[in-house]
From TrEMBL:
GO biological process: lipid biosynthetic process
Signal peptide (residue range): none
Top-level taxon in the UniProt lineage: Bacteria
Domain called Thioesterase: residue spans: 18-228
Entry-linked Pfam families: Thioesterase
Similarity comment: Belongs to the thioesterase family.
Stored InterPro entries: AB_hydrolase_fold, TEII, Thioesterase
UniProt protein name: Thioesterase
Length: 249
C-alpha cells in the first residue's frame, strides 16, 4: 500500500481548500484525476481509493461505516487546511458516513459536503439489488450504468479480477441503511443528480434536506448515472460555485 493513501494529482502548498473526492462502486480515483486542472489554482484535489483497488490492495469494506473509518484515518493528516468532501454514488454514501464519523469524533467538520447520484437514506435502495445478479446480467447492468471501461467488461481476465470488488462494493452500497437517530449534520450540503438517472431521480433529492441544518439545494444535470463523463467541467464548475457560496468567497 502507498505510504500516503491520499492522491494529489496537482499538489498545492498551503491550499486555500482541499477537496476530497470519493469514488463510485467498482471504481478507483483514476476517473477523477482530471478534475485537478478544473479547480481554482489555490485549491488542491485529494483523491481516495477504497480498499481492494490495484493501488490499494486489501479486502473491500463490508459496510459504508467501515469505509468511512478507513477514510477518516486517510484524511486526518490533511485536515489542517479548510476542506470539503464530495462523493459520487457509493462514494456519496461513504462521504456522508465520513461526515457523521467526523462529528462523532468531535473533529473539524468539512466546510461543505457534496453528494452525487445517490438517493437519500429513507429512499434507499429503490431498485432490485445488483450485487447478487448472475454474471451475464451483472455485466449488462454495469455496462448500462457506465463508469466501467468497455475493456473490463469484454476481457474475461480483467472481468475476473474486477467482479469480486464490484460485487462487494455494490453490496455495501445497496445494503446501506441510515443510522438510527442520527441528527442532521451542521454542514452545508449540496446534492447533484442527473435527469436520466433512474436509480437516484432528481425528484427524490430534495429530501436530503432533512439530513443537514444547512441544506444548499439540488443541482440537476443532463445525463445518466455517470452524467459527468466524458467532460466533467460542468459538474466541477457547479461544485466550485457551491463551495464558494457557502464559504463566502
Amino acid at each position: 500500500m502507498r505510504a500516503d493513501p491520499v492522491i494529489r494529482p496537482r499538489p498545492v502548498e498551503r491550499p486555500a481548500l482541499r477537496l476530497f473526492v470519493l469514488h463510485h462502486a467498482g471504481g478507483t480515483h483514476v476517473l477523477y484525476r482530471s478534475w485537478a486542472a478544473l479547480l481554482p489554482a489555490d485549491w488542491e484535489l485529494c483523491l481516495l481509493d477504497a480498499p481492494g483497488r490495484p493501488a490499494r490492495p486489501g479486502v473491500p469494506c463490508g459496510t459504508a461505516a467501515e469505509l468511512a473509518e478507513v477514510h477518516l484515518a486517510d484524511i486526518g493528516p490533511w485536515t489542517d487546511r479548510p476542506y470539503a468532501l464530495f462523493g459520487h454514488s457509493m462514494g456519496a454514501i461513504a462521504a456522508f458516513e465520513l461526515a457523521l464519523a467526523l462529528r462523532e469524533r468531535g473533529l473539524a467538520p468539512p466546510r461543505w459536503l457534496g453528494l452525487s447520484a445517490v438517493s437519500p437514506p429513507e429512499h434507499h435502495p429503490r431498485a432490485e439489488p445488483r450485487y447478487a445478479l448472475p454474471d451475464a446480467q451483472l455485466r449488462k447492468a454495469v455496462g448500462q450504468m457506465g463508469g466501467t471501461t468497455p475493456e473490463v467488461l469484454a476481457d474475461p481476465e480483467l472481468w475476473r479480477l474486477a467482479e469480486p470488488v464490484l460485487r462487494a462494493d455494490l453490496r455495501m452500497a445497496e445494503c446501506w441503511r441510515p443510522r438510527p437517530g442520527a441528527a442532521p449534520l451542521p454542514v452545508p450540503l449540496s446534492v447533484f443528480a442527473a435527469d436520466g438517472d433512474r436509480g437516484a431521480p432528481p425528484a427524490l433529492m430534495g429530501t436530503w434536506a432533512a439530513h443537514s441544518t444547512r441544506f444548499a439545494g439540488v443541482h440537476t444535470l443532463p445525463g445518466g448515472h455517470f452524467y459527468f463523463q466524458p467532460d466533467p467541467a460542468v459538474l466541477v464548475g457547479r461544485i466550485v460555485a457551491a463551495i464558494r457560496e457557502v464559504i463566502g468567497e
